[in-house]
Known about the structure:
Strand content: 15-25%
Mean pLDDT: 97
Largest sheet: 3 strands, mixed
Number of strands: 15
Bound molecules: citrulline
Shape: globular
Amino acid sequence: MATALLRSIPESFRDAITGERGRPPDVELARAQHARYRDHLEASGYAIEALAADEAHPDCVFVEDTVVIIGSVALITWPGAPSRRGEIEPVAAALADRFEIARAEAPATLDGGDVFTLGNRTWVGISQRTNPEGAQRVGEVASGQGLGVVPVPVTGVLHLKSAVSPVDEETVVVTPGTVDESLLTGLHLIYEDPGERHRFSALPLRTGRVMVTANAPRTADQLAAKGLEPIPIDVSEIQAADGGLTCISVLF
Length: 252
Ligand code: CIR
């Protein structure tokens, strides 16, 4: 059965890193939104495994950044934000019985929000959080799993997946001006609606449907026009802390 690994939201989430466009999130509303997200995953056939919140780590709900799963390997990251480095061990412990554990280690920095795999290629962002050594470590693991690797410099947003959101196995939504689109050759591109800039994110589900952020309806309409089935989910308080729909789960 497919699994969704989540992590609960601590009270300290109000002190999460908010980035340039963010604001302190409302913790109670964030928890309610997180519960609905979890319910949707459960209803879509995922077994939920939720790690306990860690008050010492305000950003711990963003579990995606702590691990990159590539084939049979769980590559435990070394997060680019020093305040987040204590988030990794409970995730490694939770996955150790199911995956071969690999590590990114200093001087490499790596956030899982910078990595996605579609078909036989893995794209890795070089960003505020992931440095070239981190991207190289992803490359080693991906090529060991028979995948090609495409490093992508990212500007103006936190992570590669803030700039490029996979919505199915061959289609991504791109925020214009954040990446060199020639590095996305072979993928179908949809552009984030200019009036919804930096709001769209997506989580493709095993059902074939795709969760999308509720505050980007015109971008979602473009997905529907291409035959995809978007499910709008309100994660305003996750977005307040610079997150989106992928970053609060690890699906495998
Ligand atoms: C951070 O700045 O690290 C968190 N406040 C947000 C992380 C979002 N992660 C993601 O999109 N993968």
